[in-house]
What we know:
The chain has 260 residues and is mainly β. The chain has one domain. 7% of the residues lie in helices and 25% in strands. The chain contains two helices and twelve strands; from the N terminus they run βββββββββββααβ. The protein is globular.
Amino acid sequence: MxxxxxxxxxxxxxxxxxxxxxxxxxxxxxxxxxxxxxSDLPASAPASAPSGATQTPDNTKTPAAGGTxxxxxxxxxxxxxxxxxxxxQLTFDLPATWSVRDPAGELAExxxxxxxxxxxxxxxxxxLRTNMATGSTCVDRYPYSVLDSQDLTALTLKGATPRFVYExxxxxxAPGPADTPAAAYGITSGPPPAGDSACAIxxxxxxxxxxxxxGAFYDPAxxxxxxxxxxxxLEKAKIYLETSEYRSIKRMITSLRPxx
Length: 260
């Protein structure tokens, strides 16, 4: 078990395939989502993309899209805002004190979204990327834990509903993929793991024209965790689940929906 995780986990363009390559180590995850066409967008998606991103103040607590949760989403005193990606296709909510850099790097050929969310201290907490080509084969399996999960019905396509998940790979006796953070939160269209082991983390979801991601590896250098520095990485990841920052991240990611 590693005592710390790499600090470069904002998932910029180099790490867009982190869940597939670095995130999955030398052991790629399950097959990527099938190719979809633009006509497969949910009915609520806009017919044409607005010109540029928009940001609308929202001081009310909005239930997370695609499900309900009994845990508090964020402190009552925190104002929230809605953000629409520069390509005009997706919207999500976030604390008004957080920032979005869009685009966060070079866009894929054919466009799409590439946005990075940072907290008040400028630490990267999640990356949203669309128009991604994915695909892999599960080679090795590891002990796993699903710390949190929620279906996201707002992103349902052709009857398939992706889900938000916060999960880990490996444990004290059987580490996860070498040189790879073994805890991550994000959206996935892959089947839930079963049995006593699972493929490496592969958090992508089906979104036209190919696939998308919205999440990040857990990184104690970025994710504010009230834990002793000497604690093992996976122990810190479990403690982070109980923090208000994690609850805000979950509310943000689970609010992702078609714009319009």
